[in-house]
Design goal:
single chain; mainly alpha; 4 helices; 81% helix
Length: 112
């Protein structure tokens, strides 16, 4: 049973590390603030959540696992709201979309 738990924790840690690495690469390589924010909020949340749950499982204590799960729920609830507010503030400040973007649905709402 201990080997199975260690294997699950290892897979979750490696998966979380991969998601976090992809979030970092996305922040560096993507063309505009909106796609960078999207990469950081989505992949970063999944990566940190996987690693947090893995740490809770590795501790093999229900109280620590419950705290890790509460932290994961906090990430899930706050990351989309923060990403939305960052994107709205960036658009309001005048940051343009990349040239590859097909439409700007917020354009008409900011003129009012």
């Amino acid at each position: 049973m201990a080997v199975l738990l260690a294997l699950v924790v290892a897979v979750m840690l490696v998966g979380g590390g991969i998601f976090t690495l992809l979030a970092a690469v996305g922040v560096v390589r993507l063309p505009d603030v909106y796609t960078r924010m999207h990469a950081a909020s989505k992949a970063g949340t999944v990566g940190s959540g996987l690693m947090l749950i893995a740490a809770g499982l590795h501790a093999f204590d229900f109280a620590i696992l419950a705290r890790a799960f509460a932290g994961f729920v906090f990430f899930i609830l706050t990351a989309p709201v923060a990403a939305h507010l960052v994107a709205k503030a960036a658009h309001h400040a005048g940051y343009r979309l990349s040239r590859h973007a097909t439409c700007d649905e917020m354009r008409d709402h900011t003129k009012k």
